Structure formats: structure tokens, C-alpha cells
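Input/output pair, single chain:
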Amino acid sequence: MNFSFPPVLLIALTISASASPFKDTLLTDETLWGDGLAEYSFYDAELMLYGAARQTEVRHILVRESFAADAPVKADDWQKPGTVPVIKLNQVIRVPAGVYRYDQMLSTFWRGADGELEKFSLASIDSCGNTYKEGRLDGSSLDYEARTYWEGMDRINRTVALPDDALFYDELPFKLRLLDWQAVREFTAPLVPSVINSKADALTFEPAQFLVEATNDGWQVTVTWSRGTDKFVFETQPPHRLRTWKRADGGSLVYKGGGRLDYWNRNQPGDEKWIDENMTTSAE
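Output:
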């Protein structure tokens, strides 16, 4: 891979990246987490699959919960001593593919204390088969496993060393909301490509440049890496909800509505009316 930045730009990026670009302000905001509700967002999406753009909807569900004391899974009793607060983002994706479709969900978990990635898991279901992946962070390494329906990828288990300050592409919709918006303008970080697919992943890390700008639409973060350019726009005011995402592969997400609710209690006939009641007419 041949990927480099101009020397002058690289010097500026290195200097600006001497400290973490992230801060804990959002993590400690009890107006966001203290009510026990989830942030539920709907996005009009155009996702690329088999070389073609597919119109669909993506849902992002963000909530604070607690891991059990003895395993990184949801605690039955969040008040039990030893439980660990985490922030969870579920990205719920349904993509039409001719006569069949993909149903996928990536769950990503960050430590509630410092916003560091703790775990991710993916379920991917299509008319060809089922795939499950999980990554658990252990210090400077990632314990990764995958169970897929692809030959040679039926049972993958390996440990991957993580570079300092590594980021995962799939965590960016929330992780970037933790930026120190008033101070950070640019930084670099190793970036691992998306794991939202049905095959096992190589988990290679690629250098990425992050540029942070205040625009009329909100805070814009431009990510430039070997696969192209991603542009994220977040609301100017906390909690900096994601408004738009133009993806390097040509896909996009545009916010169309949402709100805060106890979605786990909204599973009865008629509860779906909440969706129509909380749609907006634009991404303004």
C-alpha cells in the first residue's frame, strides 16, 4: 500500500496529534444518560452492495447500560456491585439485494469512563447463510473470532496487536462525537476498515487523516484514507447527533428523525406509531 501525506501537512498533523483529540465531556453528560432512555435515530440510506447503490433505512440506537462483573455482556442487574458502565451503539441495517436481502446489526461498546472501545459484535444474515463476528479489546490487542458460511472462514480465532490510538471505521458515528470540538482541527490515526460484511476480516490498519471544521450545517469531520474520503456532519450543540455521512464507497446516510425513548418497552402492536410521530421532513 502506498499512502502518504505531504511533508508539511504531516508535520502539522503530528504536532496536533500529540494529545488525544477526544475528551470525556459527552460521556459525563447526565442530561444525555441520566434519564435511562436511548437515543433512537433513523437515517435514509444509500448503501453499496455488489457494485450497486441500494435505497434503504438504517437505525442507530445509542444507550448506556452495564456489563456484568465477570463478562462483557449485559448485566441482568445493573445495580449489582462490580458492573461496568458502557455506551452501546446498535447499527441496524437492512439492505435489499435483488430477490433476497441482508439483515445486519453491529453492536459496539465503549467504556463509559473514558470512551475507549471495549467490544464489538456483528450478526449478518442473508439468503446465502449466517455470519457472526466478535472482537474483544484486551489492552493493546484485539481477540477476534468469526463464524461464517464461507469456505476457509468457518472458524476464525486470532489475536491482533493494535497500534497506538487505533480507531475502527465502524465506531466513527459515535466515537467522533467525543471530539474536543473547540480545540481539535486535525489529527491522524490508524483506521481498520469496516467489519460489516459476511466474510472474516483481515483487520489491517491504514493511516487516516481527520480534518475537523465548523460549517453552516454543523461540525464536519473529513476522513481521508486509502479507500477514499468520508464526510461526517454532526450537530453543533451537544449531544452532537450524526446528521449526514457521505461514505468513501459512494454510500450515504441522512438523518430523517428520531428521539429518546425506552425502546425495549415499545414492542406491542401500535407502538410503531412513535416512528411516524418522530420523523422530520429534512436534515436541517
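Residues 213 and 220 are 5 Å apart (CA to CA). Residues 1-17 have pLDDT under 50 and may be disordered.
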